[in-house]
Design brief:
This protein is mostly helical and 640 residues long. Among the domains are: 168 residues, Tetratricopeptide repeat domain (Serine Threonine Protein Phosphatase 5, Tetratricopeptide repeat), CATH 1.25.40; 128 residues, Tetratricopeptide repeat domain (Serine Threonine Protein Phosphatase 5, Tetratricopeptide repeat), CATH 1.25.40. The protein contains 33 helices and no strands. Helix 27 runs antiparallel to helix 28. It holds the Pfam family Sel1.
């Protein structure tokens, strides 16, 4: 801790366990996150084949990027966009391999950089390489390429090829909005509405949607209708919502057309009219709106039922519709997110289906997958337990049923570890820490990574066992030798702090460097602290700032917190406002150090208006994660 009492993680041995990546907040998939209508990129007018004939491939590249922008502008993404892009190329008899080869040697502007990334991302003219693609997208985005910034917003929001990163989605949206782009303003409004990378501010969301709507943007108009329908930042006004949906629907906004369908179908705020519902549903479905396509089957079934006085098994239209409905209903529950490691094979079946079929082995593997992901993101014991319980409850899994099955099915390291987890946390049974730790050891001996990570934590902090830095070091070394990034980071901390071994700052630096080179955000952040404190390398505050920024851009909450501390005054021109904003972002990502720092600023009125209630709120949040400084501060404030 620095003299200012602002918490960073340079000297905090808790960083062994508490190296936080981005907390992946759960969020509903909102269709057409961005569908815009702006003039930032003017379409070319020359025929693309003529450009090729003349050898002016720069014009071809610009035209292809124009096309992608237009599709993104209409809310197209994913496979539909890829297919339309390929059709666009093929219809103009463009050889994708020729464009790809030219792009390799002509990274002359942001469009060519972005398009090469697009080819890598989608495997056009080459094998797919998402890492290379995203690096190129970032490079183009740094050159203020709007399409690259839009694509990255989408990628980080939905976690396409990368971990979900709401901080980056918010940051990119804010940047585009500040430059006056309707797309960015729409996205920024959405972030404020849902609390994506920032605090929820529905009034600000409403104002931003209105600003875009007033410019004639169909997505802004549709979203403003959504605000009036749900009372987001304004009073509920369904008549106004209907008028706005209708206006956007006429402008061919498929979401507005679908929303209009629902209003007509249900007579919600207007007179019920199934014919109008079908009309607008067809319009939306024709544009590829999946919800509209599914709804259309329901409406047609309803129409056939209402208009046919007699029908039997020969009524093939109705039979097809009913069969389609059955298929649709079976797809309602999506598979859960999985991780990609060799030690724990991800399951593919829905967890409730597994229970129904009695295939609880798959359920166990999926639950262990979830815990691994939580630990791998550096979340502490309190957060992991709470998130695990929420994960179970949200999926209507009966913990008692899992526990009973585990008692009689200790068939592999995952089931052994999970039974230990249930005993440790008192899930489905009374808590029994001794039995839990024995099971963790048994699973760890079978090379279960999750058990090894948990034991590393227990022996480092002395949780229900005597502290044993030798075991901490040996487990970290074993995981590191297996090539696991988390193990290498833990081992680096051991060498840096002399935990279970002699201090070797050079070796610590090399390990952090190795992990950082792999793109691991925690390794990048820790490398920044090496440069800041001169750990195994000469002090270089510029390099430290660079790595903090890079880790923050990857959504690492410790990186965001460290960057905040940098702006607070530990290494750059002081900007308390910037420090406050960064602490706020990291605090929202459940970073206990940032929560403490934010509370401290509120308590002292340091750069912001003094607010003891807010200070108590954030100290409490940090204290709940076992931050000892926050616990002490909270006791003092509550006694006043």
């Amino acid at each position: 801790m620095s003299n200012t009492n602002i918490q960073v993680n340079s000297d905090n041995t808790d960083s062994l366990i508490n190296n936080n990546n981005l907390l992946h907040v759960s969020s509903q998939l909102i269709q057409n996150f961005d569908k815009i209508n702006i003039k930032e990129i003017e379409p070319t007018t020359k025929n693309i084949n003529k450009n090729i004939f003349e050898g002016d491939l720069i014009m071809v590249v610009d035209e292809l990027v124009d096309f992608i922008f237009k599709e993104l502008n209409e809310g197209k993404n994913g496979e539909p966009l890829k297919q339309k892009f390929l059709n666009y190329i093929n219809n103009r008899m463009i050889i994708s391999q020729e464009i790809y080869n030219w792009l390799l040697n002509n990274q002359c502007n942001s469009n060519s950089i972005y398009l090469l990334g697009c080819f890598y991302y989608n495997g056009i003219g080459t094998v797919s390489n998402k890492i290379m693609a995203i690096n190129l997208y970032h490079k183009a985005a740094e050159l203020e390429n709007i399409v690259a910034q839009l694509v990255l917003t989408d990628i980080y929001f939905f976690g396409k090829g990368v971990d979900k990163n709401y901080y980056m989605a918010f940051k990119l949206s804010k940047k585009l909005a500040e430059r006056g782009h309707a797309c960015g303003t729409n996205n920024l409004a959405f972030c404020y509405e849902k609390g994506i990378g920032t605090d929820i501010d529905k009034q600000k969301a409403f104002e931003l949607y209105k600003k875009v709507a007033d410019s004639g943007n169909s997505t802004g108009i549709c979203n403003l209708g959504w605000c009036y329908y749900n009372g987001i930042g304004t009073e509920i006004n369904k008549q106004k919502a209907f008028e706005l949906y209708q206006k956007a629907a006429i402008l061919k906004n498929d979401v507005a057309q679908y929303n209009l369908t629902l209003l007509y179908e249900n007579g919600d705020g207007i007179e019920k009219n199934v014919d109008q519902a079908i009309y607008w549903c067809e319009k939306s479905a024709e544009q590829g709106n999946n919800d509209a396509q599914n709804k259309l089957k329901v409406l047609k079934c309803y129409y056939l039922t209402m208009t046919n006085t007699q029908f039997n098994s020969d009524n093939t239209d109705l039979l097809i519709v009913n069969n389609n409905l059955l298929h649709v209903s079976s797809q309602h529950i999506q598979n859960f997110d999985k991780i990609n490691i060799k030690e724990i094979e991800p399951t593919t079946k829905n967890i409730n289906k597994n229970i129904f079929e009695g295939d609880l082995i798959k359920v166990v593997d999926e639950l262990v997958d979830f815990i691994f992901k939580e630990l791998d993101e550096g979340k502490n014991e309190v957060l992991v337990k709470q998130n695990f319980l929420n994960y179970i409850n949200n999926r209507m899994i009966i913990s008692q049923e899992i526990y009973n099955w585990l008692l009689n099915n200790q068939c592999n390291s995952n089931s052994i570890y999970l039974l230990g987890c249930f005993y440790y946390n008192g899930i489905g049974t009374a808590s029994n820490k001794s039995k839990a730790i024995n099971l963790y050891h048994k699973a760890a001996e079978l090379e279960n990574i999750v058990a090894q990570l948990v034991l590393t934590d227990l022996y480092f902090f002395g949780k229900d066992v005597d502290k044993d830095y030798n075991i901490t070091f040996e487990l970290s070394k074993k995981l590191a030798e297996g090539g696991h990034a988390r193990g290498m980071i833990n081992l680096a901390v051991c060498y840096e702090k002399g935990i279970g071994t002699d201090i070797d700052e050079q070796k610590a630096f090399e390990l952090y460097q190795k992990v950082a080179d792999s793109g691991n955000s925690t390794g990048i952040c820790n490398l920044g602290w090496c440069y800041y404190n001169g750990i195994g390398i000469d002090v270089n505050t510029n390099m430290a700032f660079k790595f903090f920024q890079k880790a923050a851009d990857l959504g690492n909450s410790d990186g965001v917190n460290s960057l905040g501390s940098y702006y607070y005054g530990i290494g750059t021109d002081i900007s308390k406002q910037m420090a406050y904003e960064l602490y706020q972002m990291a605090a929202n990502l459940e970073n206990d150090l940032a929560q403490y720092n934010l509370a401290l600023m509120y308590e002292n009125g340091d750069g912001i208006k003094k607010d003891i209630n807010q200070a108590i709120y954030w100290y409490k949040k940090s204290a709940e994660q076992e931050n000892e400084d926050a616990q002490c501060k909270l006791k003092v404030l509550l006694k006043k």
